[in-house]
Amino acid sequence: MAHFGFENDISAAMRIDKSMTKVPLMRWERKLAERPGSSGSSKNSPSKPLQQQNSVHSRTPGRTPFKSSKDKTLTPSSAATGDRFIPNRNTTQVDLGHFLVTNRSASTNGEPISPTKEHFQKTMNENLNGQKFESKIMGYHQRPPELPEGAGSQLKVLYSMATPGTSTKSLRHIPQAPERILDAPEILDDYYLNLLDWSSQNVLAVCLGASVYLWHATSGEIQQLMEMEGNDEYVSSISWMNEGNHLAVGTSTTEVQLWDVTKMKKLRSMGGHSARVGSLSWSAHILSSGSRSGYIHHHDVRVADHLVSSICAHSQEVCGLKWSPDGKILASGGNDNALHVWSSDLGQQSAVYSFNQHQAAVKALAWCPRQHSLLASGGGTADRCIRLWNVNTGTCLTSVDTNSQVCALLWSKDYKELISSHGFALNQLTIWSHPSMTKVTELTGHTSRVLHMAMSPDGSTVVSAAADETLRLWKCFAVDPQKKAQKSVAQLETGIMRKMCIR
Fold it and tell me: Which of 2, 255, 268, 333 could form a disulfide with 362 if both were Cys (CB 3.0 to 4.6 A apart)?
């Protein structure tokens, strides 16, 4: 009969119209019973319904008692956020905005400003304040850069732009002071001349007025190579031959002279120009010369009839002339703001590419030693831009506004960097990282514009010549001796493997 009792218990548990008697007390009932002064009759009685017990407490049993919603207070968060955007006023240049507003209102009510004075003020503002005067007064983000020439899409520029004005942190030590300072009295302050060059034999040639001096970097010995005879005559350009034993000298008397440095003797004089020769460049035995007349002459120094061809390249003076390292392409820049690229076919009278993007004279030219089709060019005061060109496709890869006149350019042989020399207002040398073209560092010390630069044969030292009549040697591309030794071993092994190949 035991199974009948079990069934009765299940049936009693399933019924909901009868109070449950054999159940444990709830938590709130146990606490009520444990309170001091409470009688034992407060426990559940089988004869008392649940409604009678609920009348003792106003809250519904079965939950932990809590405070009323009226007494409930919210804990404030650590950083309260609103429902609208409130900009950060700490970065707002209120003083600059007030100055711009008052200055513009005063300029409109006052006397008109001359174009020369306006250009001077604009140049001063850009050099002292950067791009602040070109931006909006209440702007909270930087304006995206302009689309460079040759780029495919504006969106690529917009979404890949970096914060302007930033400089990359160099992982190597670059001395900020020159290693040596040499005097250069009577050096001409002429932007369109090329008065400095360093030979492969570690001899530095510099033009001082009507004379050419040689400085032997190894011994420190100084020699005078030549001097012009006339009072108003001067040396306008120099260029070393690749072997380093012969020096080409361009003069204001329209001559191009060839000197043997080991014998300190003039070998020959080559004419043909009708104005001063301001630029020279070698390609093996071919010497190219550019003059103020805008013509480029190609001379074969091995034969008596030296003039190979003559090209009317520019409408004004040819101030920049550089052959590529492989001798296949010639780049020329002129005072007509034009940059031309010529092939090695000396009889061709038309340029392969002509670029007119520069807004001033193009004197600074430099070929990349690692990519022979990569050309860097720099513009004068009205342009102030460094542009990188792919001469195979004729496109501009990068353009950087330096905010000052670009006088000379040089590529580093051991680092992916480019160094430029500038004029007003800082007269500095700037090292740029390639291909990002971000500023690595600036080298200051000259008190006048840095007109010329040359690099030592080992590529570790750069010499700069300025109108302050000083030469400064900067050891800005020094290489770690261990890395240099590893590189030499790798090059030697590569050369041996090439010799072992049949083809």
Answer: 333
Q: Which residues of 259-293 are buried (b: 16+ CB within 10 A; e: fewer)?
A: bebeeeeeeeebebbeebbbbbbbbeebbbbbbbb
Residue 234 burial class via C-beta count within 10 angstroms: exposed 0-12, middle 13-18, buried 19 and up: buried
Residue 197 · residue 240 · CB < 8 Å? yes
The Cα 179–Cα 471 span in angstroms is: 11
Which band of pLDDT confidence, cut at 50, 70 and 90, is reported for residue 489? low
- Per-residue tokens: 289: 């010369």
DSSP string, 301-313: TTSSS-EEEEEE-
Strand 318-323 relative to strand 246-251: parallel, antiparallel, unpaired? unpaired
* Distance separating alpha carbons of residues 191 and 189, to the nearest angstrom: 7
3-state secondary structure of 434: coil
- Interval 139-164: pLDDT, tens: 555 555 565 555 555 555 444 444 44
> Strand pairing partners for 278?
none
Least confident segment among 84-93, 366-375, 408-417: 84-93
Nearest to 313 by CA among 331, 287, 328: 331
Q: Retrieve residue 436's tokens.
A: 């990002």
Whole-angstrom distance, CA of residue 13 vs CA of residue 235: 120
Strand residues in 68-195 grouped as ranges (E):
180-183
Q: For residue 14, which of 6, 25, 2 has the smallest C-alpha distance?
A: 6
pLDDT per position as a tens digit, 386-417: 999 999 999 999 999 999 999 999 999 999 99
498 and 451 in contact (C-beta within 8 Å)?
no
To the question of pTM greater than 0.70 for the whole model, the response is no
Sequence length of the chain is: 503
Tokens representing 351 are 């340029």
Q: What is the pLDDT of residue 22?
A: 62
- Distance separating alpha carbons of residues 468 and 365, to the nearest angstrom: 23
Largest CA distance in the chain: 145
**Beta-carbon contacts of residue 256 (< 8 Å; ≥ 6 apart):** 248, 249, 250, 269, 270, 271, 272, 273, 277, 280, 287, 289, 297, 299
CA distances from 314 to 185, 363, 380 (A): 32, 13, 16
Contacts of 325 (CB under 8 A, 6+ apart): 367, 369, 372
Q: What is the mean pLDDT of residues 266-270?
A: 95
* Contact of 442 with 429, CB cutoff 8 Å: yes
CA distance 263 to 174: 38
